[in-house]
Amino acid sequence: MTPPPEADAGAREERWALAPLVDLHWRRWEREWLVFDSGSGQTHMLDTLDALVLLMLEPGAAAPATIAEAIAAELELDPAETGDVLERLPESLASLQRLGLTATIDG
């Protein structure tokens, strides 16, 4: 579930990463994901999109388009559905940022 690093090479698009000190531990039940962040001591219940965003960021920073493409590949989505993921991604990233789990980084 790692986004291809070459997709971000030279990109000037805003990049996202896990926030500093985030250390995630996962549990999954059907379509619900539970993640414990030992860095903050907080536990979060996430939907599939939010969970996959965090999983795609665990290996390193990525641009939203790269994250969307990786999620689409993981879920075997068609191109129209990939566009839906990309459309929903800003809200997901912002929500995860408010929880202290993601952050933007300088390119």
Describe the structure.
By secondary structure, the protein is an alpha+beta fold. It has one domain (14-100). It has 3 helices and 5 strands; from the N terminus they run ββββαααβ. The chain has helices at residues 48-57, 64-75, 79-98; strands spanning 15-18, 24-29, 32-37, 42-46, 102-105. The strands form 2 sheets. A 3-stranded antiparallel sheet has the order 2-3-4. It has a two-stranded antiparallel sheet with strand order 1-5. A hairpin with a 4-residue loop joins β3 (32-37) and β4. α1 (48-57) crosses α2 (64-75) and α2 (64-75) crosses α3. The protein is globular and about 40 Å long. The two termini are 22 Å apart. 29% of the residues are buried.
> How many angstroms separate the termini?
22 Å
Q: Given the helix and strand composition, which structural class is it? A: alpha+beta
Helix/strand order, N-terminal first: EEEEHHHE
**Biggest beta sheet summary:** 3 strands, antiparallel
Please work out how many helical segments DSSP would assign. Answer: 3
DSSP, total strands: 5
Low-confidence stretches: 6-11
* Fraction of residues in H or I helices: 25-40%
Largest sheet: spatial strand order: 2-3-4
What is the domain total for the residues? Answer: 1
Mean pLDDT: 89
**Strand residue content:** 15-25%
Radius of gyration, CA atoms, in whole angstroms: 13 Å
